[in-house]
Amino acid sequence: xxxxxxxxxxxxxxxxxxxxxxxxxxxxxxxxxxxxxxxxxxxxxxxxxxxxxxxxxxxxxxxxxxxxxxxxxxxxxxxxxxxxxxxxxxxxxxxxxxxxxxxxxxxxxxxxxxxxxxxxxxxxxxxx
Length: 128
Hints:
The chain is an alpha/beta fold.
């Protein structure tokens, strides 16, 4: 029970302790952020090849802070935007807008960069 002093303090503050609180089930579900791109990459690989990924993002005329980098285990289910799947150890998730690359290959092979850039230009940056 709430004592008189606490009850008067709550009344002065305009707090009704008997007011019903919304339950977890009644809260609205917040939608996923509208990231322009999600890069699926392991943290160690991201750290190792961060300049490579920042270059890809900048070439797409996106801000690094506007995208999302996650590991495969934390891929946001229900995300509908573009995904750059840079985890060579696992197959990409079933997703309508996914590009796959191998960061190690991108770092050492210019042809791999050209192929990825061609895919980005034709699939993502192409005028609709």
